[in-house]
Design goal:
Elements lengths: L13 H4 L16 E2 L2 E2 L7 H5 L3 H4 L8 H4 L1 E8 L2 E9 L9 H9 L4 E4 L5 E3 L4
Parallel strand pairs: 4-5
Antiparallel strand pairs: 1-2, 3-4, 5-6
């Protein structure tokens, strides 16, 4: 049996946290197309928005770890730290500490990780 496909639901954390070059949207600022129902230009949204999938959407993580619930967007991609680096992008101050055990568990599995705090500080968990 295939797992149920997750949907963003009411979560719009990436609409604020991420930088979208195609529409000159800097990281940490609300998208001008963001509305109560989601995205006002959803059918014509930028390719970067179409392609973006946070770790919560791609895995069987619990609802409590959806970015709008926990205040952290988890991403995983290749970086100069290593393959499949876990990036914890804090969307509300102090929230990254609440999910730090998950990040440490990933590091324990040999995966490099770092957090980007709302202050702009980067906290490297493991450097290969």
């Amino acid at each position: 049996m295939r797992p149920e496909r997750k949907r963003c639901g009411d979560c719009q954390e990436c609409c604020v946290a991420l930088s979208i070059e195609e529409i000159d949207k800097p990281a940490g600022t609300p998208c001008s197309h963001q509305c109560a129902g989601g995205c006002a230009i959803y059918k014509a949204r930028p390719q970067a928005c179409r392609d973006y999938k946070c770790v919560w959407l791609q895995t069987n993580m619990e609802m409590e770890l959806r970015p709008d619930k926990c205040g952290v967007i988890l991403e995983q991609r290749d970086t100069k730290l290593g393959k499949d680096t876990v990036i914890a992008r804090e969307t509300r101050a102090g929230c990254v500490d609440a999910i730090w055990p998950l990040i440490e568990a990933a590091v324990g599995a040999g995966v490099p990780a770092y957090a980007i705090l709302t202050t702009g500080e980067r906290r490297v968990v493991r450097h290969e």
